[in-house]
Amino acid sequence: MRTLRILAVLAAVAVSVVVTACEDTSVQTDTDAKHRVAPVSREGGRPLRVVATTGQITDAVRHVGGDRVEVHGLMGPGVDPHLYRASERDITRLEAADAVFWNGLHLEAGISGVLERLAELGVHSIRVTDDIDRQLLLAPPEFNGAYDPHVWFDLDLWSITVGTIRDALIAMDPEGTASYRANADAFISQVRDLDSYVKSRAMEIDERVRVLVTAHDAFNYFANRYGMEVRGLQGISTESEASTADVQQLAQFISERGIPAVFIESSVPDQAVQAVIEAAAARGHTVIIGGEIFSDAMGAQGTAEGTYLGMIRHNIDTIVEALAQP
Ligand SMILES: [Zn+2]
Question: Considering the entire predicted model, what is its pTM?
Fold first, then answer.
């Protein structure tokens, strides 16, 4: 019965996504009341059943939840959250969950309607970015008034989302309060250490070439916090495509500034970046691929890059290695 209801919701959402794809409403909905989260019955001491959308959110919920929470991540390595659509298996998992944790700033554009409406079906639906002061969010002009969702690249902002996850878990499972608090504190302290590391490493790059060129605009928060410039070809969502003019403009910028390397993202096809490299070559400037960095998806499970802390460290190390002059 519940499955049918969710499928009906999905069908309605599919229609509304087509109609409203160009008029994002995230900014308008930011005054929504905080999610009401009630205690969940954990019969027989069973773990809380939680679904999380992106790898970064899944990782944070795992850290804070510890063994009191069973987390299923919807989006694995290489999966692009902007384009993600829910499968029937996902729907089954979502309907069986106590809660779903998601970004909420229009990142999961293809399933946000489903996630919003889960609340009506008795599943706690928690947007982890809700407690971030809207003043701290970026709203670049090219995103038509909506907020940039890639907040995990500002490690200070990400600590706030860890707190939101902690508070939601405590509200659902008050008996676990001490454990959730201790886990969150431990994780936030690791995030803070890494924040200092990223800051100091970024300064190793000469200011003139401290520019991160990637396929899509995922790194505005990163740039903002760590003193880098960013140039993305595709805009904030991967839904839009780069034009020939975009490619030429970026190639000109790279050539003029003498930028030695550009980067590919694990979850975005690299043709557009290759086109920029060729366009720069045609202008007589050699620019190489500085490596693969992780933007919206994390690395393979079981590798360091398959964790949030590991992917951030990998990114900054790769960027510094390619851009810092010896
Ligand atoms: Zn993105």
Answer: 0.87
